[in-house]
Structure formats: C-alpha cells, structure tokens
Amino acid sequence: MTTTTTRTHPSVGQGSTTAVKGSAIAVLKAEARLFLREPSALFWILAFPTVLLCILGSIPSFREASADLNGLRVVDLYVPVAVLLGVITAGIQAMPPVLTGYRERGVLRRMSTTPVRPGSLIGAQIVLHGAAVVLSAALALAVGRIVFGVALPRQFPGYLVALVLASLAALALGGTVSAVSRTTKITQTVGSVVFFPMMFTAGVYLPVSTMPDALQRVVDLTPLGAAAQALDAATAGDWPSWTHLGVTALWAVLLMAAARRWFKWE
Amino acid sequence: MSATALPGTLLDMAIIEVSGLHKAYGEKKAVDGVSFAVEEGEVFGILGPNGAGKTTTVECVEGLRRPDGGSVRVAGYDPLTDRGAVTRLLGAQLQESELQPKITVREALELYAACYPDPADWRALAERLGLTDKLRTRFAKLSGGQKQRLFIALALIGNPRVVVLDELTTGLDPRARRETWQLIEEVRDSGVTVLLVTHFMEEAQRLCHRIALIDKGRVTALDTPAGLIGRTASGTAISFRPSAPLDTRELAALPSVSSVTEKDGRILVDGTDETVNAVLSLLAGRGVTAYELRVTEATLDDAYLDLTGTES
What we know:
Shape of chain A: globular
Strand content of chain B: 25-35%
Strand content of chain A: under 5%
Largest interface: A-B, 34 and 36 residues
Strand order of the largest sheet of chain B: 5-6-7-3-8-9
Structural class of chain B: alpha/beta
Shape of chain B: elongated
Oligomer: heterodimer
Number of helices of chain A: 10
CATH architecture of the largest domain in chain B: 3-Layer(aba) Sandwich
Structural class of chain A: mainly alpha
CATH class of the largest domain in chain B: Alpha Beta
Number of strands of chain A: 0
Order of helices and strands of chain B: EEEHEHEHHHEHEHEEHEHEEHEH
Order of helices and strands of chain A: HHHHHHHHHH
C-alpha cells in the first residue's frame, strides 16, 4: 500500500504549482542587471556586428555597385550579415556558457529549493539574449541606413517574423549546446564548433546567393541558412518564402525540444 | 532537550519523517535504509564520515533527489510531489552551491525574498547576520564566512519552519565557525527546526539535541550527544610514559580496566573513573613514576570513532 495521509493546507493544492506572484519579474530584473554587468557579451552581441559593418563600409570599393552582385554594393550585403552575426553570437557564443555556468555553480540547484522553478532563470536569459538580438539588429539596420544609405527592409513585418524565428532557432541551438555540455569549458568549445558552420550557412563569410546551387540547396535546410534567405527576401520587399520560414521554425521547435529533453539541472 | 527516543515513537510530533530511505548511484548504495524523525523546534544533527550518505539523505528531504525507496515527509508533505508546499516551509543551505558571481548581496536577498509568498524582511535579516555593510558587494567578492552568512540569510528568507544546513561551517576559520554556531543557536531559539549535517564533533555536541550517526548509508546510532558518549566502550582513558619498564598484564588485571595498549614507550589504559586510582596506586607500589600523565574523559569523538567502524 502506498497510501499517504493527505493533508489540506490553504497554500497548497492547485496553487502550489503556480509561481509566487511577481517572482518571474523579479528574476528577470535581477538577471537583466547581471546581463548589463557583462561588458564583453554586450560588446560582441550589440556593438561588434555594427562595428564590423562600419569597418567594411569604410572601404571605398565596398560602397560601389557591382555587376556581380546584381547592381548591389558589398555594404548592402553586409547589413543582413551584421544582423545574423548578432543573432548567432547571442545564441551560440554568449548564452550557453551562462546557462552551463549556472548549472555548474549550483545556481539552478539553489533556486530549485525555493518555490520558484530554476527554469525561470533560463527563461530570463533567453528573453534577455533575445532582446539583445533585436537591439543589435536595430542598430545594424539604423547605422546601415544612416551612414551607408542601405535601404531598410521593405517587407518589414516579414523581416520581423524571420528575425524572431532566426533568434529562436539560434537561442534554442545555444540551449542544446548547453544541455549536451557538462562544463562551461566544454560549452565554450562546443559553442565554437557550432558557431562557424552557422556563420557559414548564414552567409557571413560568403553571401548565400553567390554559393554554387547544390550548396545553396543544402544551406536552405539549415536553421540559419533558411533564416538568412528569409531575411534577404524581406529586405528585398517580398514576403519570405514559407519554406524558409518553415525550415527555421521547425529547427527552432526541434532544438527547443532537444534542449528541454537533455538539459540537466545539476 | 528532548529525551532519547526511538524514531518511530515521535511520528505525531515529527516535522521531518524519513523512513527506509534508499538511494543508489549506479552500483553504489549511497543511502541504504535510513530512518529518523525530527521533532518541531529541535536541532537534529546528521553526523558521519565523508561519503556516508549524509548529503544524499538531506537532498531527499529537500526534494532535490528522488529516493529509490522509502518515504520522506516534511510536515506531512512529500518533497517531490508537494514541491510547492515543501519549498515554502523548508529553507536550505546547500553544500556546493553558489550564486551568480556578479549579483550583490542586496540583489540576492531581494531576489530570493521575491521567491516566497510571505518572505521575511531582508533588511532585518541582513542586519541580524551582519551583512548590512556588504549589501553592495558582489557574491564573488565575499569571503567564505560572508558567503555562508548570506546562505543562512537566504535559507531563512522565506520564513521557514525547517532549515537544512549542510556542512555550513566547513572551510571557515575557528572564529567564523563560532560566530556561525551562535547564529544557529539564535535560529533555534526563534523556534525553527534545524537539520544540521556536519562532520565536526564539537559542532554537533554544542548545537544538536539529537544526532543520527550515519555510516555507509545506514544509521548506526541515534541519540542525544550525552547518550552517544555514554555508549562508548571506554569511559576514561589514562595514558603515561613509565619511568621504568612495566608489565602491562599487571595493569590489565586491575579492576575495571577494559584494555591496555603500549606504543612507543607510552601506555594507554582504558577503563572507568575507578581505574585512575588503581593505576596510580599500582605505580606507587612499584616505585614507577608516570611521566606526561594524561587522563581524558570520553568525548563525542570517541563515540563517533566507536560507532563508525575502523575502516577509513
């Protein structure tokens, strides 16, 4: 028999599963303060993509229209690259070591002895890195427009949808990296290993449109490759293809499931 | 002080009940049938060598680990299935856990206060734990003692009925350790039940009403500190270096002597209070002087060593 005496207590029952009122906000606020104390993460996510854009944009030949690029200038291609650089840096380089560090140091364990779930710390980190991506993208677009006269995305809602999906996929990939890496050191290594293929498929090193057809078809199936195509389409004024949006969304869902499945709290 | 009692007889008043607890990590049985009950308002010690299963036991009480067998109840609630209820009434200080390195003391107190429906006033708590002038200091910059005081504050911030302190004073210098003991006494005096894991005898003897001695995943003794000392084989130990050779068999034949051992010219006689006189008169009769004579009463250390076996 496994009968146990059930006691009734006013504060237990259905209420016990709901978080303490305001605790999620308190966690987010505390984590936001801590996030602002990480100058290097802030630099690489927020400033570096735009700094890179400015450096490349300062090269005169990059500001001249090129027949090879269908009349576009190199700097026009580098605005989307800068945006994706922020996405990938936040999701794969910056966030995973924080999550693994929280697990390694027992921060998650400590939180799990309170009525608040340790997942609220993870949730806060995802929200903060997501917010940083949006700011980073806004900065790159604004500087691109103001300094180098790069046109803003013409299909703005489509661009936003693609950007959000790309961020979710990158953050979910980062969550998976943290889930499968036991220590912060391993997380950084795995993060770097994942980082370069993501940069490549996003067209950071070589614009996807200039890649051979066969390679393009493979790249179209990768989370950031598809996202890059979707962003490019929206920039040009078209609603992104449902295939590209779908591929990115599917990756985001799969990677979120993988991260949840494999993430260890201690 | 509570009287010596068997765990089973306390169930009605018990705030923590652990019965037949089993937990294995792979092949290794970390906890192998541990049972005890802690009364409300009591300081209950869990004492034992490293790797005895102390931390695993309290982690099951805290709901951080799922037992393989047996049951754990905190105020009648299951720490795993009634997690919400247990986390509200139990505050914990974990053995190996840190906070975010850049969080300040004040931010940590505010954050953890926000985790509970009816938190204590964090300012008062900081004051009580001597953290007021450290409120703006980041966690990573705190000393070991300050970190432990912060962890005590966080364990108390939800106004718990039970606090679990796991090797709280390990790594602290003697002064910080004594200060921490005083804090625990204050916590006890405020009516909070304390479950204290330690491997310091002095700490257990000073703070605990009752102690469960755990060795190799089992409770080998459960008693008051005085009760445990009373169980030791040797009540009184006499040791000295004789000025002339002495036949140890003569000593062994003395009344109430339980054992005689000789090592490096030093003789150790275990017995009772009566043994002291008998040994001294034998020495006087033989004209032997006892150099470096030492008479020691059994302590919790002796009880501990007796009850935890000889293997290291």
